[in-house]
Amino acid sequence: MSPAPTVGMAIPQRQHYCDEVQQMLYNASLWNGHRIHFDMPYATEVEGYPGLVVAGPLMGDWLHQVVDEWLGDAGMITGIEYSNRIAAYVGETVTSGGTVTAYDEATGEVTLEVFVKNERDEVLTPGVITATLTLAS
Fold first, then answer.
1. pLDDT at 136 > cutoff 70
2. What is the pLDDT of residues 21-33, one digit of tens each?
Protein backbone atom coordinates (compact mmCIF):
# COMPACT_ATOMS: atom_id res chain seq x y z
CA MET A 1 0.00 0.00 0.00
CA SER A 2 1.36 3.36 -0.95
CA PRO A 3 1.11 6.16 0.03
CA ALA A 4 0.21 6.09 3.75
CA PRO A 5 -3.54 6.50 4.28
CA THR A 6 -5.12 9.88 4.90
CA VAL A 7 -8.71 10.66 5.77
CA GLY A 8 -10.68 11.23 2.57
CA MET A 9 -8.32 9.14 0.45
CA ALA A 10 -10.09 6.90 -2.09
CA ILE A 11 -8.65 3.44 -2.57
CA PRO A 12 -8.33 1.98 -6.08
CA GLN A 13 -11.62 0.63 -7.35
CA ARG A 14 -12.10 -2.82 -8.81
CA GLN A 15 -14.66 -4.13 -11.29
CA HIS A 16 -16.42 -7.46 -10.81
CA TYR A 17 -18.44 -9.51 -13.24
CA CYS A 18 -20.39 -12.56 -12.13
CA ASP A 19 -21.35 -15.05 -14.82
CA GLU A 20 -23.56 -18.12 -14.43
CA VAL A 21 -20.61 -20.46 -13.79
CA GLN A 22 -19.13 -18.32 -11.01
CA GLN A 23 -22.60 -17.93 -9.52
CA MET A 24 -23.20 -21.68 -9.52
CA LEU A 25 -19.80 -22.52 -8.03
CA TYR A 26 -20.03 -19.83 -5.36
CA ASN A 27 -23.51 -20.85 -4.22
CA ALA A 28 -22.57 -24.53 -4.29
CA SER A 29 -19.63 -23.83 -1.98
CA LEU A 30 -22.02 -22.15 0.47
CA TRP A 31 -24.69 -24.86 0.11
CA ASN A 32 -27.01 -22.04 -0.93
CA GLY A 33 -29.90 -23.63 -2.79
CA HIS A 34 -32.12 -20.55 -3.10
CA ARG A 35 -33.52 -20.75 -6.61
CA ILE A 36 -33.20 -17.00 -7.33
CA HIS A 37 -29.49 -17.69 -7.88
CA PHE A 38 -29.71 -20.44 -10.50
CA ASP A 39 -33.28 -20.94 -11.81
CA MET A 40 -34.08 -18.17 -14.30
CA PRO A 41 -37.81 -18.95 -14.72
CA TYR A 42 -38.25 -19.09 -10.94
CA ALA A 43 -36.26 -15.88 -10.35
CA THR A 44 -38.14 -13.93 -13.03
CA GLU A 45 -41.63 -15.44 -13.08
CA VAL A 46 -42.17 -16.39 -9.42
CA GLU A 47 -39.99 -13.91 -7.52
CA GLY A 48 -40.25 -11.08 -10.08
CA TYR A 49 -36.54 -10.32 -10.47
CA PRO A 50 -35.21 -9.20 -13.87
CA GLY A 51 -32.56 -11.95 -13.80
CA LEU A 52 -30.54 -14.29 -11.60
CA VAL A 53 -29.61 -12.56 -8.34
CA VAL A 54 -25.93 -12.44 -7.38
CA ALA A 55 -25.41 -14.05 -3.96
CA GLY A 56 -25.26 -11.47 -1.18
CA PRO A 57 -22.16 -12.95 0.48
CA LEU A 58 -20.28 -12.59 -2.82
CA MET A 59 -20.85 -8.84 -2.62
CA GLY A 60 -19.26 -8.90 0.85
CA ASP A 61 -16.35 -10.89 -0.52
CA TRP A 62 -15.84 -8.24 -3.22
CA LEU A 63 -15.68 -5.54 -0.51
CA HIS A 64 -13.11 -7.58 1.37
CA GLN A 65 -11.12 -8.18 -1.82
CA VAL A 66 -10.84 -4.52 -2.84
CA VAL A 67 -9.50 -3.54 0.60
CA ASP A 68 -7.23 -6.57 0.86
CA GLU A 69 -5.70 -5.74 -2.54
CA TRP A 70 -5.17 -2.12 -1.44
CA LEU A 71 -3.51 -3.23 1.80
CA GLY A 72 -1.23 -5.79 0.17
CA ASP A 73 1.37 -6.93 2.71
CA ALA A 74 1.07 -3.65 4.65
CA GLY A 75 -1.84 -4.70 6.83
CA MET A 76 -4.69 -7.04 7.67
CA ILE A 77 -8.46 -6.62 7.74
CA THR A 78 -9.77 -6.88 11.31
CA GLY A 79 -13.48 -6.23 10.81
CA ILE A 80 -16.16 -5.95 8.15
CA GLU A 81 -19.79 -4.89 8.27
CA TYR A 82 -22.00 -4.54 5.22
CA SER A 83 -25.61 -4.61 4.14
CA ASN A 84 -27.00 -5.67 0.78
CA ARG A 85 -29.55 -2.98 -0.12
CA ILE A 86 -30.15 -3.45 -3.85
CA ALA A 87 -29.70 -6.68 -5.84
CA ALA A 88 -27.03 -7.23 -8.45
CA TYR A 89 -27.74 -9.58 -11.32
CA VAL A 90 -25.67 -12.19 -13.14
CA GLY A 91 -24.17 -10.53 -16.20
CA GLU A 92 -23.85 -7.06 -14.67
CA THR A 93 -20.51 -5.37 -14.08
CA VAL A 94 -20.28 -3.82 -10.63
CA THR A 95 -17.54 -1.76 -9.01
CA SER A 96 -16.18 -1.97 -5.48
CA GLY A 97 -14.17 0.71 -3.75
CA GLY A 98 -13.92 2.80 -0.65
CA THR A 99 -12.65 5.85 1.18
CA VAL A 100 -10.51 6.14 4.29
CA THR A 101 -12.63 7.70 7.06
CA ALA A 102 -10.20 7.36 9.98
CA TYR A 103 -6.53 6.56 10.52
CA ASP A 104 -4.72 6.28 13.84
CA GLU A 105 -1.03 6.58 13.09
CA ALA A 106 -0.08 5.42 16.59
CA THR A 107 -1.94 2.09 16.41
CA GLY A 108 -2.04 1.63 12.64
CA GLU A 109 -5.83 1.20 12.68
CA VAL A 110 -7.56 2.40 9.52
CA THR A 111 -11.31 2.58 8.88
CA LEU A 112 -12.85 2.69 5.41
CA GLU A 113 -16.36 3.26 4.14
CA VAL A 114 -16.73 0.77 1.29
CA PHE A 115 -19.27 0.12 -1.44
CA VAL A 116 -20.35 -2.01 -4.34
CA LYS A 117 -22.05 0.10 -7.04
CA ASN A 118 -23.81 -0.86 -10.25
CA GLU A 119 -23.36 0.81 -13.64
CA ARG A 120 -26.11 3.32 -12.72
CA ASP A 121 -23.91 4.46 -9.78
CA GLU A 122 -26.42 3.07 -7.26
CA VAL A 123 -24.82 1.79 -4.06
CA LEU A 124 -25.88 -1.84 -3.83
CA THR A 125 -23.83 -2.77 -0.80
CA PRO A 126 -22.48 -0.14 1.61
CA GLY A 127 -20.18 -1.15 4.44
CA VAL A 128 -17.36 -0.38 6.81
CA ILE A 129 -14.05 -2.22 6.98
CA THR A 130 -11.39 -1.82 9.65
CA ALA A 131 -7.81 -2.92 9.24
CA THR A 132 -4.55 -2.73 11.12
CA LEU A 133 -1.44 -1.64 9.28
CA THR A 134 1.88 -3.20 10.01
CA LEU A 135 3.89 -0.46 11.69
CA ALA A 136 7.56 -0.11 10.83
CA SER A 137 9.73 -0.59 13.90
1. no
2. 988 899 889 898 8
Q: What is the C-alpha separation between 110 and 129, in angstroms, rounded?
A: 8
In this structure, the strands spanning 123-133 and 75-82 are antiparallel
pTM: 0.90
SS3 8: coil
3-state DSSP helix/strand/coil percent for the chain, to nearest 5? 30, 35, 35
> pLDDT tens, 62-85?
999 999 999 999 999 999 999 999
Asked if 129 and 80 touch (Cβ cutoff 8 Å), the reply is yes
| CB neighbour class for 57 (10 Å; exposed up to 12, middle 13-18, buried from 19) | middle
Cis check: omega of the bond before 3, within 30 degrees of 0? yes
d(CA 133, CA 15): 25
Measured in degrees and rounded to the nearest 5, phi and psi for residue 21 equal -70, -50
